[in-house]
Every structure is written in C-alpha cells, then in structure tokens.
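Example record

One chain of 842 residues, shown exactly as stored in the release files.
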Amino acid sequence: TLRGMKSECDEGLLLDGILSQARVDGSEIRRLLSQSHVRASDLIAEPEHRVEAMLQRAGLVVGDIFKIVRALRGFHSDGGGGGGASSQPQGKAARGSRNQPTMRCGLIVYSTTVLIVTLTILSFYLPAMIYHVRSTNHRMTRSTTYSTTLHGHYSLPAALGGLPAGGAMPAPRGPSGARVMMVTANQPLPCTTRRGDWIMELALRNKLMYATLHDYKTWWSTELVSAWDLEAAWNKIPLLYVLMHPESPVTQGVEWLLWMDDDAIFTDMNFTMPLEQYDRDGINLVIWGDPQRVYRANDIQGLNTGVFLLRKCEWSRQLMAEVAALATPSIRRQIGNKGRIAEQGALTWVLHSQAERWKDRVQLERNFTLNGNWMDYAKKWVPGKPKLALPVWGNDAIPFVVQYAGCQMCRGHSENGSWHDGGVRKCQNAFIEAYTFGDDQVLSLLGLRHLTMDTHLVRASAGSELYQRHQRMTRCLPSFLVIGTQKGGTSSFHFLLKSGWHDAVRVNSGEKEIHYFSWDDQFRQGPLTYQQRFDGSGDRLGECAEETKLRGEVSATYLDYPKAAERAAMLLPSARIVVLLREPVARLVSSFNMKWQVEICGKLTWSRTDCYNGVTSMRVINENNVAPKQRAAAVKVWNECSVDKKGLDHDCLRRDFVDKLSAAISDEERRLGECAKPGAFEELGSCLGVQGLEQAKLYALMEGALFLYRSMYSEHLAKWLKVYPAEQLLVIPSERLKEAGDMKDTMGRFARFMGLSDSGAEVHNDLIFKSSPAAKGVGSDGHVHENGRTYIAEAPADLAEKIHKILCPKNQELAQLLLDKKLIAEVGDMPWLATALKRDIC
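Predicted structure tokens for this chain:
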C-alpha cells in the first residue's frame, strides 16, 4: 500500500508512516533526517545496507536504525525493491507534488499504518492468548501485560509445533521441581585440548545430578539451532526461543528455563532459587547483574549470561527476539567492540536502551552468588564444610554456581590467543576442585566421598555400610607403606622393622620388596595373596593371626611407578605413607652405579661390594644369570678393559662409567626438553612414555633410562598427595638414616606418626647401632646404615653441576609443595634441599 503511495503522498506524510510503523520517536528523527537531507523516498528506494549507512551518518541511535530498517524490509523483498528504473518517474512525481499535501493522503497513510500494526499484533498474540485460556496449568501470578512489539524472527519448526498424538497434553509433573527445565549445550565437535572432553563430561554430569536431585527436567543441546547467523554463544538465544513456544511438547508444564553455559557448574547442590518470590514480584528474568552498570553505563560486564533463569512466557520470547536481532553484523559493529559483541553485550544493550520496557520484570540477582568467577574461589574449598576457607568479597558462603569463563578448557585458547597450555591446566585443576566439592554432596547420599579434592577416586565415608565392610576385609593388610625413593635408605629402614625394632610392628616375610602396587603381575594376584605375604595365614580377606600388630611393607618402586599411588589408595585409603627423600644428584649417581654394576657384574652385584673385581674371566660373565643384552654389554667391557684376560682395568672402567653416565644424562635431557615444549603432554611421565607400558618394558624404562625423572620428587609426591591427604604422609630426609644417633630420632618420629610408643620395653633401639646388610661392613665412622656398595667413579664436577641445574626447578617445586602441605615446617628441615636452593644455578 505504501509503495503505491510513493508518488501520491507528501514526503512528510510518507516519513510519518515509516516512523509510525517503526514505532520510534518521530520528532527527533525528523530533525536529524532533515539536517542530513535524507528523504523518505530515499529510504524506500535504497537497499538495506545503504539505508543503515544513511541513518548512521544522520546520527540516529542504533536501536532506531534497527527498527526503521526492519520496517522497511518489506519494500526490499522483491526484485524491484523501489530502487530500479521504474522508481525514477515515481520519485519525480513525488517531488513534483511535494508542496501539495492532501487530507486524503494523510488518512490513507494513517489508516494503513493502523491496519498493519493491528494485524501484526493479532497474528502474534492471538495463538498465545488462546493457548493460555485452554491451558489448565496457567497460573494467575504469571499473567502479564506484554508490550506491543514487532513479531520475533523465529517460529517453532513444524516437527515440534503440534500436540502429541491423540491431542492430549502430557500430565504435569510435581508442583515444585517439575516447574523448571535446566537447559545447557556443548559444542558439537570433540574438544581440542587434552582432557577437554572429560572435563565437559564432568560438567554435564554435575548439571544432570543437580537436576536429578531437584526433579528438574533437562534439555541438553549439541546442535547449532541457527548456525548461519547465531553461532557460538549466540546459540542459546534461538534455542531458548524455540523451547519457550507455547505449544512445544518438550516444555509442557514447565514454567522456568534455567540456562547453564557448558563451563558453569553447581557447587551448592542443595540450594534452590526462590521461585515463589519471583512469582510474587512478577519477575520473568533472573540474572546476575549490577543495575548501575547495566541501566546507566551499558557496561557489557554489568551482567553475566552464563547462568540465568527465564520464565516461559511471551515476554521472554520477545526479549530473546530483541537480543537475536542484534546479531546482524552491521548492528554488532555499531554497538560492540569492533563487531565482536556477544549475546551478553546484546542483552546488556537491550536492557539499557529499552529499560522502560523490560526493567520491571528483570531481577539483577545479588542476594546469592548466581555465578561466581572461578579465580575467586580456587583453592578455597574445604571438603565437607559449608563455608569457604577464605571469604570472597567478604562472604564465606558457598556459591550456588561457579563459571569458568575465559578458560576455554575444550578449545584450549581464547579469541585473542592469550591462553596457553599452562593456563588451560590451571583452569582444569581449579575446575576439578570445585566439581569434586559439589560431587561430594551428591555422593554423600550413597555414603561415599572423594579421596581428595583433585582425584576421581572415591572412598566410603566413615560410619557408612561400605566403610565398615572395607574395614573388615582389609584389617589384615598394611597400615603403612614405605614408598621410596629408590636408593634412599629403604633397605636400612626395612632391616630395622624386620629385625623387631618395635614389638607392635610387623613387615612382610620373604624378600624385602613386594612391589604389589607397582608391578602388574603382583597386583593381578589379588589382595588375598598380598595379605598372605605377611604371615601366610588366612584363607579369606580379613582373617589372619596377630591382628594386634601393625602391618607394613617397604617397596622403593611405589613412589614413582605410574599406577602405584591410585592402586594403594583404592585398597588402603587409611594407610600411613612414609617417604624417604635423598639428595637427588647423589640418588641419581647411586642408581646409575647399581645399573652399571649389574651390567658389568651380573649376580656378583649382590654378593660383594666391589663386584667388578670379581670379574676375572669370560667364564664368570657367561655364568651370570642376566639377560642377553646385559651379557653382551659385559662382554664388550671385558674386551675393552681386561688386563691379560685376568681382570678389569680400573682406569678403563672409570672412563666407561663416566661416558655411559654422561650419555644417559644427555639422552634423558633431550627427551625432557621435548616434553617442555608447548603442546607436549600435560604429565611429564606420560610424555616420557611410562603410561600404559606392560611390566617388562616399564621396568626397563624406569630402571635403565629415567634417572633424572626418578629424582624429580615433586612429580611423584604430587601424585600421592592427589589420593592421600597430607596428614597421612611422613617425609624423612634419607640423610637422617645414616648415623645411628640421627636414625634413633627419626625412628621415634616414625613411631609417633603411627600412634605407637617411641620408648619403653616395646622399642629396641639397640638394633639401630648394628650395621644393616646393605652397609656391607661399613660403619666404623658411625655411618652404620650407609650403603656399602663401592663406586668405581663419581660424576665429574661439570656433569654434577649440569645435573643440579636440570633438577633445580623441580627442587624448587618440591620445597613449595612440602611447605604448602605442611610436610615440613621450613626448608631447613631437609638440609640437602636448603643447600640445593641456595646454589647459584637456582
């Protein structure tokens, strides 16, 4: 109708019709258009992008531009669009009659405009009004007078539009939880970060558990509803719009939609939002926000669309339509930051620019933490406690939801590229803590809880049925484990315990080390065989003799072998863990010396301290019970270093020792360097290849190639602290086991740690002053428990310095870890660690 009037009506009346249909403030816009010489016929004739540019140059606000362009779209829908050749004579006629306004033109424009607006309103609201009248679930408190606005851009797909078969509405669920549907979404493609898919799975589980506890419906989306224009974070807008359709079969009986971003999780699983209060107040949208920053400053950070509660009603559909309309790239460029405005900025702008229309129905919630920032809450969770360890913004209450905005734990980088692998790991670790805190509230219903805040492993809660069963079945298993380190004094420690140093302690019979948790073949034998290693009794778990004694075992492979910590925590969650830590360079050289001697001497290694002096012929080498590879290496050394075929030259052996040690360190240093590159494996052990190996290959790698890695104590101790609380660990410097006087004090500390007496008739300290078998007769200087194996050579000074430099960062990590976990009071408690950190290379 308006197209036909272009040549007939006055420009002013034509402009009145356009502005009336756009529903904008006409007086100010007429002034701006007049100053810029923009005519109504120009707006009709030009294509949309040119119209936007003209209006922008005229100084119109973005919202008015959007409304005018939307009102004019009908004129551009066909091929002519008012801009072709046929428009020229019409424009000329219009210009010729510009000064001849008539009452007839005004009435036609006015009547046509009123008719269009009326039909638009009826077509939009009539179905909704009929639905609400018919619906038996309609609640009077939800009745609202909606604003008269233009129709949204979305309609319910035909596949979802009708009633269920038979025309019957599904029966509503309960009166409380069934009112709410929790809606979330994940990206449709696999994550690109390590553990990203697992993290997203945990986040989804968290949401589903919360919904289950409170009888909420759920809708989990992985599809892009309107991918061509509403991508990424915008996807929630059309999804919610469709779900809120009055005839949507999936939301029948639902009154509220609770949106949760994929990176948001519930941390207070018992909290529920005050829906009745929102009903009484006539609230339709609940979202975290600051009124000053939203309504006055139009600050994109003034609210957070990661979590919000939206009433299922036409008011909410209209709001979503208004937000979606701002997804047009040209609109984004005008109101956003270089066109990158997201749905959060769009919602902020809508509430700011149309406050009179929406404000009364919006609750910018600040009475509880609707979605806390993850960085504020990291390291502040206390397992099982209703309060934070430290307050956040003066409040120590548990937040309802925590969001990991900006972490990009699935994609691994932010839009501006500021995040890196280390940042992603930091986010993931903080996420696991918060997730575990929330999950413990769910598991408590089953009598379970997580071992620690950063592990997936669970244990039965004290007093639960599962806990009592576990206690009965494991009462004959060890109460403590001495887990290493290798070459750190475990032999001396085991010797004292086995010799009867304390009457209330019993260690395993047979060989010193069982390796039950570190070696697959031992672990596969099962816990009953493990139980029988102590006194041979018991045909069933939990049945044994001498139940009054504390049982324990010593295996140096437990500290650093990949599976040991988790296996031990599953079977022995209450066990006490003793860790012996030796100065790492000395440990490394001692470990390599043993490997070198086994290679040269074979079985002689275990019968004499200077085994290489016992290699006097090829016959001795051939009689050694060693693998072919070791025998071949021994033959090679014999051919190079034998003197008259009667023995081995010591100078030649020293060169061989140093050359092989240097080569081993250089090779491992190269591998460690590869693991330090960006994008390498998250865990150092995984990068070095220790995960997933069958036992023989794992043993060869750990014992023959990873000397530096096994001296990086912080790597290994951190794994044990993931599955055991720090109060169950005792860290002892190995150097405190060399001299008898120091060892007496150390063993007394061990007794107190185990809850035993450290003196009296039960304690036999005289055994401490006897040399252990490992000392091999050494001890005239008081070092009765120092390893007696002789060294053909030591590491040269430059090589030792190189090793110190490589290990220095890990020593620093160890010091911080021990202090943070209160395993030492000060660095000086471990003299070698204090010395290492004072070196110039650190």
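Notes: The radius of gyration is 38 Å.
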